[in-house]
């Protein structure tokens, strides 16, 4: 019986550890099962200790599973310390929930005032926002002016709902440095998409990608408590599966665009996917993750009932060095927490392809 249990846990663990490399376009449910990875690592650790103390040869099975799954520990938890150096660039990413995320007893005006003030006081060189709301008709809701132009920032604002008007929402990039090029990688005509901006930092040029990949499309009412999640589990699973498949497709478009970038890339945003996912591991092959290299703790970024999710990230190219990464979980003006990073590099900042030419 013990052999069967140990063997079953081992094979399930190995399958899930490897499933992060399987595109949900081919196996839609793989991305849902990977949520069990942290639990399997803990179970294998406990099983190894029990079997080792019992001097059972079966202990080698959970040990092998732990070795293969070791990378998931660093993805989940970090104890990095900031590096003492002067940064070339500081970057902030924040899903601002239309600047209107209310809690019991709050009103929209109060929330807008608070989050706007925090964003005005933040000194990041680059500020990237998802679910950004712009209202040219109301001074208190003119976010581009309040957060950007009045503070000396240039900006790139791309509407992703197909409705270009005096009131709109989409993705925005604000920069203290000159923006020499901008564009849209794709959008869904709803509230998701990816935009980019080429920014001249002194003598170097950096390309900033601001991403908001396909949402889980689970209403806030369904996430208010555990009972609500249980009641709607079938619908929730269906939406999670669909989100996995769509994000895999979007990822292909994004990766092709980044591969054609003539500059070093920084990719930030709300990826709507956990670190144990095809999305995360596909990007991790191409770029470094700021949390893994310079973060501390668990870095959870979701500010709702599923508080244990880290779905907001900053990725960066090898040409850049990360000095510090922070999850600002003291800032609860949205259903996401902002994340920020400090970077440095050696000038001139040139890609290998450009050096060869």
Automatic annotation (TrEMBL):
Boundaries of every Endonuclease/exonuclease/phosphatase domain copy: 92-336
Gene3D superfamilies (UniProt xref): Endonuclease/exonuclease/phosphatase
Keywords: DNA damage, DNA repair, Endonuclease, Hydrolase, Magnesium, Membrane, Metal-binding, Nuclease, Transmembrane, Transmembrane helix
This protein's record includes keyword Transmembrane: yes
InterPro entries the record matches: Endo/exonu/phosph_ase_sf, Endo/exonuclease/phosphatase, TDP2-like
UniProt-recorded Gene Ontology molecular function terms: endonuclease activity
Transmembrane annotation, as ranges: 5-23, 29-53, 60-79
Coiled-coil regions listed: none
SUPFAM superfamilies: DNase I-like
Needed cofactors: Mn(2+); Mg(2+)
Name of the protein in its database record: Endonuclease/exonuclease/phosphatase family protein
Annotated organism of origin: Belliella filtrata
């Amino acid at each position: 019986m013990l052999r069967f249990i140990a063997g079953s846990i081992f094979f399930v663990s190995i399958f899930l550890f490897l499933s992060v490399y399987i595109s949900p376009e081919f196996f839609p449910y793989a991305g849902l099962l990977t949520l069990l990875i942290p639990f399997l690592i803990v179970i294998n650790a406990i099983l190894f200790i029990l079997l080792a103390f019992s001097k059972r040869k079966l202990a080698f099975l959970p040990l092998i599973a732990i070795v293969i799954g070791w990378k998931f520990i660093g993805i989940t938890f970090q104890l990095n310390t900031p590096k003492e150096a002067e940064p070339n660039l500081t970057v902030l990413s924040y899903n601002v929930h239309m600047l209107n995320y209310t809690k019991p007893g709050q009103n929209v005006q109060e929330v807008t005032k608070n989050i706007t003030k925090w964003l005005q006081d933040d000194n990041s060189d680059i500020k990237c926002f998802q679910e950004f709301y712009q209202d040219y008709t109301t001074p208190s809701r003119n976010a581009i002016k309040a957060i950007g132009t009045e503070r000396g920032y240039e900006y790139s604002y791309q509407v992703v709902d197909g409705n270009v008007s005096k009131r709109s929402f989409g993705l925005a990039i604000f920069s203290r440095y000159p923006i020499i090029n901008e564009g849209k990688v794709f959008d869904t005509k709803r509230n998701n998409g990816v935009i980019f901006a080429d920014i001249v930092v002194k003598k170097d040029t950096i390309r900033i990608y601001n991403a908001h990949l396909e949402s889980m499309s689970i209403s806030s009412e369904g996430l208010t408590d555990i009972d609500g999640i249980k009641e709607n589990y079938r619908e929730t699973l269906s939406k999670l599966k669909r989100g996995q498949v769509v994000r895999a497709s979007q990822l292909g478009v994004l990766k092709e665009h980044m591969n054609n970038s003539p500059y070093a890339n920084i990719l930030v945003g709300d990826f709507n996917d956990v670190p144990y996912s095809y999305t995360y591991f596909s990007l991790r092959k191409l770029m470094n993750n700021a949390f893994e290299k310079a973060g501390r703790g668990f870095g959870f970024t979701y500010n709702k009932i599923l508080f244990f999710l880290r779905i907001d990230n900053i990725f960066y190219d090898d040409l850049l060095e990360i000095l510090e990464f922070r999850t600002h979980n003291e800032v609860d003006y949205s259903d996401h927490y902002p994340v920020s990073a400090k970077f440095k590099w050696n000038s001139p900042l040139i890609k290998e392809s450009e050096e060869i030419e």
